[in-house]
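Thread: "does anyone have the structure for this chain?"

Original post by V.I.:
We have the sequence but no experimental structure in hand. Need at least a predicted one for the grant figures.
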Amino acid sequence: MDHIKAILDAYVSKDMRFYYYTRPSNFPKGANSCRNYGFDKCNGEFVNWFDSEDLMLPDNLHLKVDALTAELDFVIANSLNFDEAGNKSRPYFLDYDLPITSENFINGKIGWITTNALLRKESIKNRFNEYLRSGQEYNFFSR
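Reply from O.Q.:
Generated one for you, tokens below.
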């Protein structure tokens, strides 16, 4: 990962829409702190977090934005991740017989991970708990 800064700097220099930030030292280490810091920095209408093991297919954001109607605050979609070896993808598919509702999510009947969700920024009223070691997505989306 030592080369990641050079790769990102190349994108930033080519396209003014891209920014590269490093987590400030006053934020605790970990994905939740980075998500919160990124949220503080973002100024777009939508938020979709991606972690280092996540893969984004070319039409991912386009399909999510198209599915997000005026009545919805978020949409959930399938995602892909790198496997433990870092060279294959494994799907995180949402194939439910149950409707995607807050009740079904909170009761553990359905679930999704951070990258599955595209949210309207204005609808986000909470932050990721920076001190949780597991269950971060469940905690965030339940609140």
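V.I.: this helps a lot. Residues 45-142 form one domain.
O.Q.: and The two ends are 33 Å apart (CA to CA).
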